Sequence to fold (123 residues):
Amino acid sequence: MPLRFVLCLLLLVAGCSSAPAPDGTAPSWAGDMATVRVARLPAQARETLALIDAGGPFPYAKDGAVFANRERLLPARQRGYYHEYTVPTPGSRDRGARRIVTGQGDEVYYTDDHYDSFRAVLR
Fold:
């Protein structure tokens, strides 16, 4: 296996793994969930995070809507605890499959497969 291929593979895995945060620990709310560092998110997800931090304005009417966690992949919380935001997908004619979900305890989750899986975002 060429060294360049192995290095690229390692970079991909390092950016989207359940590796600990730089200080050696992931936030407690992440549990054993896979994590991704903000710098490894797609540019559109980083832009959406910036909009969330600024309080908007948001480009989609459904941004900020309550996320019900029907898939039960995130920790169980009362209704209204989680909110979802669209992460634009280049070339998609609709909102696409990518979302950021935030929790009232400053949790941030990212999905690129319309809630089939989540990664805790390390900030």
Observations:
- Residues 3-21 have pLDDT under 50 and may be disordered.
- The first strand starts at residue 35 and ends at 37.
